[in-house]
Predict the structure of DUF2264 domain-containing protein.
Amino acid sequence: MSADTVPQAPGKDRALSPLTGWTRQHLVHLADRSLLALRPWSTPGHARFDLPGPPSERGPIAGGLEAFARSFLTVGFRLSAADSDPHNHAGWYAEGLAAGTDPASSERWPTLADSDQARVEAASIAIALHESRRWIWDNLSPRVQEQVVVWLAGSNGAWYPHSNWQWFHNVTHAFLRSVGGPHEQARVDEFLGYLDDCYLADGWYSDNRPDGRGGNIDWYAGWVMQQFSLWYCRMSAGEPGIAERQAVYAERLKAYLADAGELFGADGAPLYQGRSLSYRYAAVGALWTGAVFDASPYSAGRLRRTCMGAIKYFVERGAFDGDGLLSRGWHGRFDAMAESYASPGSPYWAGLGMTGLVLPESHPVWRDVEQPAPIDLEDRVGAIRPIGWLVSGTRSDGIVRVINHGVDYSTLEPVTERPPYNRFGYSTATAPVPLPDGSAGEAVDNQIALIDKRGRWSQRPLIDTFNADGNRAESSHQARFARAEPTEGFDTGPALTCISVMRGSVEVRAVQIESPTDAMAEALVISGYAVPGKPSPGARTDLVSAAVSLTAGGMTGRSVHAVETAFGSDLEVPWCRFDAPNIDRWYVVALSLGEHIPVWPTVDSGPNGRPIITWPGGELDCI
């Protein structure tokens, strides 16, 4: 078998992995298969992969580096604990390192001083070099080693924004320090302080927010803020203070995973929320990291079930196209979900999901029998307090839903809502309507919106979380109405108090208008999840999204949006509308997402005027 020949996939092992059938050999096979599929798209010196598809806003050269660096991350994890390299990944990528860092080469990479994209990719290269050190770095010639150091050292003095990017700087400098290269220890320490300031509580970081607001949350909380922090320690072993820092980061990771590990459906799908979702199974990188650093709240078999379930979910739903390339998308190719900075090589950051390969075959995460996740066994509802989320997973349909009372991807000033962040609900089986509130002229998914006399729909660009605990969450926001161009900004509307109570697949959502304005709203609209009328390949076809009014005066209906998401097109959104809403009255709606319309709860007025919910099983909750 030649080095370029794709090996045959191993058979499923239902004795060791009764739920997924996948073992470490399956992950090794996937790594090899994905790396070999890239080779036909390589430049002659292997420094770039010029993949098909539209380039990012940074251009094809930066995109080619991105594909190299992110796939090299898979190489690093693949070779870290390996006793052989049958496909010569080490030799192939060593040639690419030599060509890419050679100033005289036609394939030379952009410098870190000139290219912000290069600063991002340098971090992946640094981690991969560390993990594959005995295979690649130790066998590079002194000249190539010097070239690599000079290229990485371009980060000295380069600009890194106040965000997760500071981890890209720090892991780059951890590698430079480990090989005696020039590094900025004072700046590393400064960035460590800033990143610590972004820590909220219970394991959660809010990216770019050192002010204690939990608004900036998505899967980056695990991809970078958690995993890169511990990899910085792994690359800095023996340095002063690192053991103590690693202990702190490990405790944070353990707390984070106790929540984040519940954000996967029974089919393996991660929660569809936030940007850059085309990294797909990078979502399990932090889970593997928990096993690497003995910082997992789960048993080894339970952790493997979630990690392999997520990876398998994408592999079996078309993430790799006919050429074996990872596409931009979720299931199959869906370029519309890519951010402007995403090149055809961007999805290869999914290589973070290969982190588990640094653990040898003898590790319990590979040796122990796979164990079910809680969603395989029972219904669960819980709160993630620092970020204002309620999380509900239901065994009957395998769906996880998140009710959002805290994440708004905010700045200090209100900006137009972003569908991946500002909606009231997200799930593992649906995606938000890709239109900001107010632009559609009708209900989009998971909103609480006022309609003013000019027909404008309000937005909630800034959220103030009051409480999230058990099965209840409460927040408030100022309803804001976008001004027409060329005038920028918002007109301020009333303040709204919003409360969610969750049981199983049903959310009861209650709204109270707290303060009057000069012109009261014409209507209040509360909407549910968007389900595609035409599901795409790989998406579920059995979903029912429903809404019903639990207080008088509510009119129900459905909007259909002729737009497309990663799950399909013709998006149907159920809603309830209350005309001429009054101040201080509670408007209560029940919403569900599942395989059928549930038996709805009822609502009565309590002694203090606050609604009391009676659930079908007799349980009571007070709004």
About this structure: The chain has 14 helices and 20 strands. The radius of gyration is 25 Å. Residues 284 and 353 are 5 Å apart (CA to CA).
